[in-house]
Amino acid sequence: MSAYIVGVLVPLVFTFILRNSKKDKRRGLPVDVGGEPGYAIRNRRFTDPVTSAWEGISTLAELFEQACRQHPNKRLLGTRKLISRETEVSVDGRSLEKLHLGEYEWLTYRKTFEAVCSFASGLAQLGHKSGERVAIYADTREEWFIALQGCFRRNFSVVTIYSSLGEEALCYSLNEAKATTVICGSKELKKLVDISGQLDTVERVICMDDEQPSNLSLVDRSLTWNITSMAEVEKLGRENPIEPDLPLGTDVAVIMYTSGSTGLPKGVMMTHANVLATVSAVMTIVPDLGSKEVYLAYLPLAHILELAAENVIAAVGSAIGYGSPLTLTDTSNKIMKGTKGDATALSPTVMTAVPAILDRVRDGVRKKVEVKGGLSKNLFNLAYSRRLLAINGSWFGGWGLEKLLWDFLVFRKIRAILGGRIRFILSGGAPLSGDTQRFINICLGAPISQGYGLTETCAGGTFSEFDDTSVGRVGAPLPCSFIKLIDWPEGGYLTADSPMPRGEIVIGGPNVTLGYFNNEAKTREVYKVDERGMRWFYTGDIGQFHADGCLEIIDRKKDIVKLQHGEYVSLGKVEAALSVSSYVDNIMIHADPFHSYCVALVVVSHPALEEWASNTGTPYTDFTELCEREDAVKEVHSSLVKAAKSARLDKFEIPGKIKLLHDPWTPEFGLVTAALKLKRDVIRRAFSEELSRLYS
To answer: Which GO molecular-function terms appear in the entry (predicted)?
Structure first.
């Protein structure tokens, strides 16, 4: 009996000690820095910010060439062959394109490097000169990566443009950057043709696809564009090779045009050293990152999160398989029935994600569980609750053999949705709700690290360590960054606050970019250089430091609106709290200073509301009519109130009235950015009548 007691108690005591040691672990340490007074934290393992993780490497071009020399025969870039496409008509009369995709076909590091060198030579032979800028305007794909690295080998600055940008923003970006060469897909070329007369500096257009759009003959006759294919440029370079003109670390690698949540996009100037600092920092904090990884690439490469991630994966000799958000899983919108989704075909081990994607995965799993019902539903709920207790430290029996049991019986099938081999997920671009973080962590069995950074800091800022099981925080500073909080008295946030210092988040380090292209006034407003030579970026976000040195984002200076009676409403905070409602696909809170309450536009989850209608016997002819029903509005509003109370929101923060919307907000419609952030001003204008009626 005594041996049995020891056998049970020793593992429990060990687990208790281990979990409490993680809980008390210092993940960030105070540091003395220059500049404006504040409360600053550094990474616990690095006294000074990391600039390069590789000796003798100071540019992305050198880093890529080194990787190709070290791993010539390993797989690098993978793309699925399009077998066929069909058009289906949905029950509501909409035409939906469905794709039949084959297995991944791969380029090795050697073949990729050859393509990069050929493209670099071909681009120069085509007439692109030193000092001129190349714009890449396309969806994420292997040609994007090859074009980027090719430009780096000739020290051409790359202007990155989201493929979802509207005509006005597209014209503005290309004209402001004075791009002379544009590299794009056939879909984007069609858009360029439509606005050709408004583009001032474009001379060459390189299409990644061999087929060209039908409207090509409509190019403005006054222009003398040289339009060619990427294959032809590579062929030209192979036949006429040119020695590389490699950049220095201080040279501008990328001018990245943000998708612009407000107004026209701004071009952020990133040097090779800036991006390399973030890439080097990530190398030090992802556990056991090496050449065995398989990475699923589907986020926009025009976003710094994806661009940095792919450079990290290439640097360590791993494989990058390309996909898209619309073909990600077996049930994605564009996947033909019976065809594998990208994740199933690739079986990735690591991936990046934005919260909106993870929310969809969560909602999809929950829907399947509800549809199955009965024993399957009860078993899932039991398994989930036991794992949740274990992660929260309330039940030690949820580890070990019991964990293996639940993984085999329940979660193994869920993990197959993303290929079954995911071991690490990085979430960035926006706040991830604690509910989704826990759900994905349990169901996929992999740590989700929340990262915090901005385009202006090359995505570098903070990063949750893989063994940090807390939710709602974004981790300690990356090794390339110092994070400082400074007082914002107007908003009531001070570094002297108790129990945690609070204030505006300011990021310093070698990853902080040069500023905004052709916008010195805005650059001076948010970038500062201190007396020690450290460059700082003022984010406008409000954060607080926990005792272990981890950061939590709690507010945004621009998102705070003062109501009629003096109460302050933080729009982003309220939206994050209400997004946990199963009825919410997207939501925007609107606060008017001339009223005492806020209102909400709610993009409704079709499955959730239709399930409610079915369960309650509510009649409707189509989803639009269902969204207009008073009882449906009442049901969704009740769910929002419940979520608000659970998040301990004040009464004035709970929307007094709501409007249900049936159409999703996508980058194509211009209501959200490519990173799926709300474009508040655009949404306000688009739904001005609805907002007015909510206040009437």
So the answer is: ATP binding; long-chain fatty acid-CoA ligase activity
